[in-house]
Amino acid sequence: MLRTAASALSVLLFTLPLQAQSNWNFDRAATQIAFVGHRFGAVVTNGRFEHYDGTFAIDFDHPEKSRIKVTLDTASIKAGSALVDGFITGASMLDSARFPTATFVSDSVIRTGERGLDIRGRLTIKGMTHPFQVSVMIDGDVDGARHGDALPFHASGSFLRPVYDIGRDVNIVDDQIDIEIRGRLAR
Questions:
Q1: Residue 69, SS3?
Q2: Is the pLDDT of residue 96 over 90?
Q3: Which of 52, 79, 139, 159 minimizes the number of CB atoms within 10 Å of its CB?
Q4: Burial 47-82 (b: 16+ CB within 10 A, else e)
Q5: Which fold does the domain 20-186 belong to in CATH?
Q6: What would the mean pLDDT of 94-120 be, rounded to a whole number?
Q7: Who's near 156: CB < 8 A, 6+ residues apart?
Q8: What's the pTM value of the predicted model, to 2 decimals?
């Protein structure tokens, strides 16, 4: 009886279709999410988010089926000094007390080359949601990642501060803020 049940389970497992998507998360030891603000082309502020989370359902064969969600803790900014950190997380900028997270959720993932992806979705900051585009370049071996190896990558996107009511009275930084991620995904 036990042998029959084991045989039936074995047949069931080997005849089910393999799921194409695999689930990944940020490798925190190897990932940094940063922001950069310019003024007349020169970098005037930059920093990183210390606390973040991400879930990635990746389909290597059909990227358009992939789904991505990244959440940033807006109070976890480190920009070089407590004074600057406090200003950026304060009410006139990110207002972290009222809006503790910023979130990106993908709507579409399109391959743009052998190792490139164009990810379009929605970015929510301060309770306001707008379209957002991320360009991704895979830095590692995709075939190795298919078999469980970590997946190094870098990604970037930009948004305009006024769209999210960030620092309307601040004129020391241009309106465009760049987000840059260098990291690695792991299972």
A1: strand
A2: yes
A3: 139
A4: bebeebebebbbebeebeebbbebbbbbbbbebeee
A5: Lipocalin (2.40.128)
A6: 97
A7: 134, 135, 178, 179, 180, 181
A8: 0.86
